[in-house]
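Researcher: Quick test of sequence recovery. C-alpha cells follow.
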C-alpha cells in the first residue's frame, strides 16, 4: 500500500469511528488501522452490531464526508491525554496511552470527533470519494482471548469510485471462488467439527486431486536427485529439546506422556526426523549434496480463531526436503531450489510471484555471526539471480533466515507457498559431520525447503485460482460420458472403458434424469469434457463432444477425442 492510500484509509477509519459514536454515543473505541485491502475499527458498542447496521453507519459516514471537516493535529502530555480519555469513558485509549514511551501524544480532531492518533490524514473528510463498509467480525482486545471481545468493522476506501467498483467486483468473484464453498459443492473435502476443528477429510474427488499433486511432486523431486524418506509421526521429547522446538515452538506442539513417564511429541516439523536419518550413517564429501524428500504430515496446535478452511489447519502435509551440503555448494543448491519453484509454479498455472527474505528474529538459536553469514548468502543468491525481494525484518525461523515465495492468483491475490531456509545451527546442535578429502571431519550446512509448501494450503490456492474449473490434467474427473437413453448404455460403457484404458479419469452418468439435467450437473461439477452418446454416435463409433471451454464441438471419432485430450494435457502442463 502506498503512502497516499495509507493516509486515505487511515482517515476513513476515523470517519467510521466518528459515525459509530454519532449513532451510538456510549460506544467505546479501541484501534482503527489501515490494512492491505482497506481498514477496520475495533469498537465496544453499547448494543450488539450486525451486518444489517452497516448501511446506516455508511450513510452517517457520507454525511461526515459531505461536511468537509478538516483533520487537525494537536498534542497533549501523556498524563493529560490519559485523564482526557478516561473522562470521556474511553478505557482502551487510556490503556494505550499508559504504554506509550513518549511524554507527549498526538491527537487528531475532525468536527466533534477526537481520537488518539499519530496520523497522517488527508486534509479534509471530503477528499474521501469512495468508501464502502464490508463486514463485521469479533476480535479480542490486543489479540488476547483473555481480554474483552470487541466488534471489528471492516471497510475499504479508494481515491476514485471506479477503483472501488473494480475492488467490489473482485471481492464478489473471490466469494464465488471461496475454496470452502467449492470444497463442499464439488465434493472435494470436509472439515468436520465433530471430529475436530482444523482437520481435513478428503472425499474421493478431493483425494484424487491431492494424489495428482502428490504424484507430480514425487516425479519432479526424483528428476532433481531427491531421495525419498519416511519418518515417524511421534518422537521422544528429548529430540525436540535438542532441535530447539521444545523451547521455541512448544505452545504449538501436541505433547503427551506414556505410563513410563516418558514424554513424546507429535511432530510439528519434519526436519528432526531427516536429521536423524542423516546422523544414522557416516557420510563422505562425495555423497553431498544429500537431498532428502518426504511428503510428511505434521500437526500444529493452532488456535481455533485462526483456522480457515484448507489455508490454516492443524494437520497438514508438506512436500518437505532437507538438503545437507558443503558450504561451497550452498549457492548452487539455493539456485536449484529457486529454479524448481519457478518450474512448478509455471506447471500449475501461476506466472507471477513476489519474494520475501526474512531475517533474524528477536529469539533465535546460534550466534550472530552464523546468522549474518546465512543472511549474506541468501541476499547474494537473490541479487545474483536478479530477483527483486522485500525484507521482512525479524520474521526468520528460530534456526535460520529464509526466503518465502508468494504466488499471484487469477484475481491478483498473493498466496505464500514455497520456502527455503538456511541453517547453520541444527547441524551443530545434532553434531552432524561428513568426511572431507583430507580425511578430516567437517560440518554440513542444511537447507530446509518446500516447493508447494503445505499441500492443504496449496490445494486451497489452486481451487480459488481456477474457481474449481481445473485444467484437464488436474481435474479429478476429466470426462463425463452421458448416454442419451438406456439403449446407448452398452456403447457408453465401451467408451468409458476405452478412455479409462488410455489413462483418462472418466465417469458415466446413467441416472434416470433428463439429458439436460445431467448436462447441467456435469457443468456444475466443472468437468472439462462431456461426451454425449445417442443412437447415431453408437452406430458410427463416435462421440458428441461438449467442452467446458469450447462449448458444443459436434461429433468426432473416439480415437480423435483421445488424441485431442492427450494434446490438451501436454499443452497445459
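Model:
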Amino acid at each position: 500500500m502506498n503512502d497516499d492510500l495509507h493516509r486515505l484509509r487511515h482517515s476513513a477509519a476515523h470517519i467510521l469511528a466518528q459515525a459509530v459514536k454519532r449513532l451510538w454515543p456510549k460506544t467505546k473505541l479501541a484501534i482503527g488501522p489501515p490494512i492491505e485491502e482497506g481498514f477496520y475499527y475495533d469498537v465496544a458498542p453499547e448494543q450488539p452490531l450486525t451486518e444489517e447496521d452497516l448501511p446506516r453507519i455508511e450513510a452517517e459516514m457520507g454525511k461526515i464526508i459531505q461536511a468537509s471537516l478538516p483533520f487537525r493535529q494537536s498534542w497533549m502530555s501523556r498524563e493529560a491525554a490519559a485523564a482526557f480519555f478516561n473522562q470521556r469513558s474511553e478505557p482502551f485509549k487510556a490503556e494505550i496511552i499508559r504504554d506509550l514511551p513518549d511524554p507527549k501524544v498526538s491527537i487528531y480532531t475532525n468536527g466533534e470527533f477526537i481520537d488518539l492518533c499519530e496520523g497522517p490524514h488527508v486534509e479534509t473528510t471530503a477528499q474521501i470519494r469512495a468508501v464502502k463498509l464490508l463486514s463485521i467480525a469479533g476480535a479480542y482486545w490486543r489479540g488476547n482471548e483473555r481480554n474483552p471481545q470487541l466488534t471489528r468493522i471492516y471497510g475499504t476506501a479508494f481515491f476514485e469510485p471506479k477503483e472501488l467498483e473494480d475492488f467490489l467486483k473482485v471481492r464478489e468473484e473471490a466469494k464465488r471462488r471461496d475454496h470452502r464453498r467449492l470444497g463442499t459443492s464439488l465434493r472435494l473435502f470436509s472439515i468436520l467439527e465433530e471430529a475436530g476443528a482444523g482437520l481435513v477429510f478428503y472425499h474421493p474427488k478431493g483425494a484424487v486431486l491431492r494424489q495428482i499433486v502428490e504424484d507430480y511432486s514425487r516425479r519432479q523431486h526424483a528428476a532433481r536427485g531427491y531421495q525419498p524418506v519416511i519418518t515417524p509421526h511421534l518422537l521422544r521429547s528429548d529430540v525436540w529439546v535438542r532441535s530447539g522446538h521444545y523451547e521455541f515452538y512448544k505452545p504449538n506442539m501436541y505433547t503427551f506422556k506414556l505410563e513410563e513417564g516418558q514424554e513424546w511429541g507429535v511432530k510439528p516439523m519434519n526436519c528432526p526426523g531427516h536429521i536423524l536419518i542423516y546422523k544414522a550413517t557416516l557420510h563422505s564429501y562425495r555423497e553431498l549434496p544429500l537431498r532428502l524428500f518426504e511428503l510428511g504430515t505434521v500437526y500444529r496446535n493452532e488456535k481455533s480463531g485462526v483456522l480457515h478452511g484448507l489455508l490454516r489447519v492443524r494437520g497438514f502435509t508438506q512436500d518437505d526436503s532437507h538438503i545437507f551440503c558443503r558450504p561451497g555448494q550452498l549457492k548452487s543448491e539455493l539456485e536449484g531450489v529457486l529454479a524448481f519453484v519457478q518450474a512448478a509454479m509455471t506447471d500449475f498455472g501461476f506466472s507471477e510471484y513476489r519474494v520475501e527474505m526474512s531475517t533474524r528474529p528477536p529469539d533465535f538459536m546460534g550466534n550472530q555471526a552464523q546468522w549474518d553469514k546465512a543472511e549474506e548468502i541468501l541476499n547474494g543468491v537473490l541479487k545474483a539471480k536478479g530477483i527483486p525481494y522485500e525484507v521482512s525484518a525479524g520474521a526468520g525461523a528460530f534456526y535460520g533466515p529464509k526466503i518465502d515465495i508468494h504466488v499471484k492468483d487469477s484475481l491478483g491475490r498473493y498466496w505464500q507457498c514455497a520456502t527455503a531456509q538456511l541453517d547453520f545451527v541444527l547441524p551443530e546442535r545434532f553434531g552432524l559431520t561428513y568426511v572431507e578429502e583430507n580425511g578430516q571431519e567437517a560440518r554440513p550446512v542444511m537447507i530446509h525447503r518446500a516447493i508447494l509448501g503445505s499441500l492443504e494450503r496449496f490445494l486451497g490456492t489452486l481451487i480459488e485460482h481456477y474457481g474449481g474449473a481445473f485444467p484437464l490434467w488436474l481435474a479429478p474427473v476429466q470426462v463425463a460420458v452421458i448416454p442419451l437413453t438406456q439403449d446407448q448404455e452398452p456403447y457408453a460403457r465401451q467408451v468409458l472403458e476405452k478412455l479409462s484404458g488410455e489413462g483418462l479419469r472418466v465417469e458415466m452418468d446413467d441416472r434416470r434424469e433428463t439429458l439436460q439435467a445431467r448436462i447441467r450437473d456435469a457443468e456444475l461439477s466443472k468437468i472439462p469434457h462431456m461426451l454425449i452418446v445417442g443412437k447415431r454416435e453408437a452406430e458410427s463409433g463416435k462421440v458428441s463432444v461438449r467442452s467446458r471451454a469450447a462449448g458444443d464441438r459436434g461429433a468426432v471419432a473416439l480415437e480423435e477425442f483421445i488424441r485431442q485430450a492427450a494434446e490438451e494435457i501436454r499443452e497445459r502442463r
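The radius of gyration is 29 Å.
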